[in-house]
Every structure is written in C-alpha cells, then in structure tokens.
Amino acid sequence: MNKIHPTAIIEDGAELHPSVSVGPFSIIEGGVFIGEGCVIESGVRIFSGTTLGKNNRVYSGAMLGCEPLDLSFTPEKSRPLLIGDNNHFREGVNFSRGVKSEDGTIIGSGNYFMSNCHVGHDCRFGDHNVVGSYTAFAGHASVSNKAFISGLAGIHQFCRIGDNVMIAGCAKVVKDVPPFTTCDGNPARILGLNAVGLRRNGFDATARKSIKQTYKILYHSDLNISQALEQLRGEPQGSEAQRIIAFFEASERGVTTHK
To answer: Which residue range or ranges hold the UDP N-acetylglucosamine O-acyltransferase C-terminal domain (predicted)?
Structure first.
C-alpha cells in the first residue's frame, strides 16, 4: 500500500505506484505519475505533467515540474518534465517543465542534484551526473553523462556540457564545454583534461593518450579549430577522439576556449 502521510495532498488524476511513500504536507497534482520505489519527503510539490520512473528520492522543499521562468509561457504551451530512475533531488531544488520543445524537460537516470540547484525549461540531462548546490542551468542547456558540476556555477541557455566534464565552483559557462575536460573561470576557460574523472570511469592509458593527442591538435597547435578538425577527420581516430570531433562539429554556441 502507498505510505501517504495524512497531511499530504494527492489530487485526483495523480497515479502513484503502491510502493511510493509521501511525507507530510507534500502536494502531488493531478496528471503526475510516480513509479515504483520512489520516496517523496515532506513539503515537496510535484506539478501536473511530471513523470518519475523508479526509485527516485525527492527531498524536502523540492519543486518538480513548476512553471518555467519564461515570459512567453502560457498554460497551453506547457510541456512535461520526464524523469528516469534512481535520481536524488536534494532539498529545495527547482525543476521547470518544458515550454518550447515537444519533449519538454528530460532528466535521465542515476543523477544527483544537490540542494537548491535550478534546472530551467527544456533542459536535457543524461545519466550519472552530479550537480552541486546553488548551480543554475538556463533554458535549453544540456548535460551528457558522468559530468561533475560544482556548486554556484552558472550555465548559459543552450550551452552543452559533454561527457565526463568537471566544472569548478562559481564558473560562468557561456559556451559548450567539450568532453573529458575541466573548466573554471568567469567566463569559463578549459584548464586541461579531467584526468581524475577519466581514471575513475575506467578510461585506460591508451584512451587517455588518444584524448590528450586530440586536444593537443585542437588547442595547442598553430591551427584554428576548423583546420584542426579537418586534420583530425583525415586521420584514423579512436572512439574517444570521434566523440570529441562530433561534439565540436555539432556546436552552435561555439566551444569554450583554452586558458
């Protein structure tokens, strides 16, 4: 049976798996789906159109699927907030529903969002990312997989964060951050490779060497980015180098430069 505190409000039309628990004074609006094993603590509000997969934990004061911070928003433009499995949403986090993309805001699985971070409308998160307290993502920002984004960082709208990236605290990110790198500063600059993260995530010496060589051509040669990419395309590349090249080629805002 659902473990629902008597002070919680579960509106008609909300669908909760029988294993879900809901703490005191939480509000679950109609049109919400909450999957197996989720724990909703006290004082949480989950807005209509939000879907949570399995085994998510939502801590006190969190708000999921609230109206976006967009001056053009009207209720008929509302898009969903879709959440995967095994995520942690710590105290006071704020996640906006979508407004401009058909699929809305999408959060993958295994992510850990620390207290009071903000994720704006139409953002995309992959899997196993860690986001520090008070970090803010403007609308349409995207984060791939296994990134570590420290506290108080600010991510500009439409920016992309690549796989296995490390972003320092208080960084101001205004352009895309390519895979496997660390960045810091205002505005942010690439400092080097995320060497610790690469080792922790099982990248062997051969893969790390390939990544290092690719960035040496991109950032430390006499070539501009277009010329460096052309050179890299003309040479046999491993999977890691191919991911870096594809990231640069897909950039619309431009890629963060080296310090």
So the answer is: 176-255
Q: Which of 139, 154, 162, 197 is catalytic?
A: 139
254 classed as catalytic: no
Given the candidates 3.30.720.210, 2.160.10.10, 3.30.390.50, 3.40.50.300, the CATH classification of the domain at 3-143 is 2.160.10.10
Q: How far apart are CA 109 and CA 10, in angstroms?
A: 25
Whether the Cβ atoms of residue 240 and residue 173 lie closer than 8 Å to each other: no
Catalytic residue status for 122: yes
**What confidence tens digit (pLDDT) does each residue in 224-237 have?**
999 999 999 998 88
First to last CA, the chain: 56
pLDDT at 1 over 60: no
CA-closest candidate to residue 245, choices 202, 211, 220, 205? 211
Interhelix angle for 205-219 vs 239-250, to 10°? 30
Assess contact for 59 and 40: CB atoms under 8 A: no
Q: Is 70 an active-site residue?
A: no
* pLDDT tens readout for residues 135-157: 999 999 999 999 999 999 999 99
For residues 229 and 249, give the distance between their C-alpha atoms in angstroms, rounded to a whole number: 8
- Nearest residue to 246 via CA among 231, 229, 259: 229
Ranges of each domain in the chain: 3-143, 199-250
- CA atoms of 243 and 221, how far apart (whole Å): 20
Fold of 199-250: Udp N-acetylglucosamine O-acyltransferase; Domain 2 (1.20.1180)
- One-letter amino acid of 99: V
Which one of the listed residues 35, 104, 120, 121 is annotated catalytic? 121
Percent of the chain surpassing pLDDT 90: 92
